[in-house]
C-alpha cells in the first residue's frame, strides 16, 4: 500500500456526513441508506431499544469481525469505517483483493446509547469492555452472538484513547496505539497472539513514514473480562486499535484518515497471508505512557510561593445541545519537568490569574487566563 495514493483515495471516499467527535445512530443511518453493496442487518437492540447494525462485505474464505464504539464516546474509528465502506462501494483496486479473499462483518456502533450521551458506558452505566464474561448487557450478548454465529478468524476491536498518552516516556504523542491482548495470566506468546503482533508490526511500519515515533503499544496485562483478552483466549488473533491525538486535531479528522489507513493495511496484510514469525518487530513499538496534558502554562508565579510552578490543564468533554464542548479544567499545579502540553504557554515568571483576578486552583474551569495583562484563551 502506498501512503501517498491512500491520502488521495481518502479525500475521494471520505464520508462528509460524519464529522467531529459526536457520532450517533442517527448520523450513521443516513450513511447506511446510501450504501448498495453490503448486506445490512439489525443484530438486536440496546438497553434503550436503539438498533445495533451490522454490515457484511466481501465473499472470501477469511472471516474478519470488526466493531467500533463499544465505548460510546470513541467515534473516530466509526468515521474511518464508513470511509472504508465508501471505498468498498467504489470497487477500488486497493480494496478489491481484500473483498475477494475476505468476508468482513462490521458492527459500526456497538453502544448506541453511550454514543447518544457521549459516554464511555452504556445506558446501565456498564463498561461493555469489562463485560466479556458476565455478558450482563444486551450489547454484550449481541457481540458474543455475532462472534459465535460468524466464526471469525480475526477480530479488530476499534477504540479511541485520551489525549494524555505518549509513545514511550517521551514528548511524542501516541497518535495511534495498538495491542495484541494477552490470553492468559502468563501473557504466553501463542500462535494467534504472534499473528496479531505481526499484523500490527506491518501497520506500524507503513505509518511510521507519516507519523514517525507517533505510535504506541499498550501494556498487555491480562484481564479476561475484556473482550479482546476473551477472544484471544478463544484462540482468535485479535487486534486492539486506539485512535489518539494529532496536533491541533481535537475533532480527530486527521486521526480519522490515519485510522482509515491502519484498518485497510490490517485487512490487506490478512488478505495477503499473515506470517506470524515476523512478530518481533511488534516489540519495537514503545509502550504507552501518560506524559501529556492538553495545556501547560510554564513558569507561573504564585502569590504564596517563591518558586515558579507549571499549571496543567485538561479538557473536560461536555455534550451541550448535541455539540461537544471542550472545557479547560486545572488538574495539576507543580513543576512538570517530564510532562508536555499539546499547547504550551510561557508565563515568564508572571502571575497567572483568572479573568476575575484570582489564582487558578485545582478543578477550576477557566476558558481564559490573564498573564502580564494579556488575556489568553485555553480553548483548543
TrEMBL record:
<keyword id="KW-0121">Carboxypeptidase</keyword>
<dbReference type="Pfam" id="PF00246">
    <property type="entry name" value="Peptidase_M14"/>
</dbReference>
<keyword id="KW-0645">Protease</keyword>
<dbReference type="GO" id="GO:0008270">
    <property type="term" value="F:zinc ion binding"/>
</dbReference>
<dbReference type="GO" id="GO:0006508">
    <property type="term" value="P:proteolysis"/>
</dbReference>
<dbReference type="InterPro" id="IPR000834">
    <property type="entry name" value="Peptidase_M14"/>
</dbReference>
<protein>
    <submittedName>
        <fullName>Zinc carboxypeptidase</fullName>
    </submittedName>
</protein>
<keyword id="KW-0378">Hydrolase</keyword>
<comment type="similarity">
    <text>Belongs to the peptidase M14 family.</text>
</comment>
<dbReference type="GO" id="GO:0004181">
    <property type="term" value="F:metallocarboxypeptidase activity"/>
</dbReference>
<feature type="domain" description="Peptidase M14">
    <location>
        <begin position="21"/>
        <end position="267"/>
    </location>
</feature>
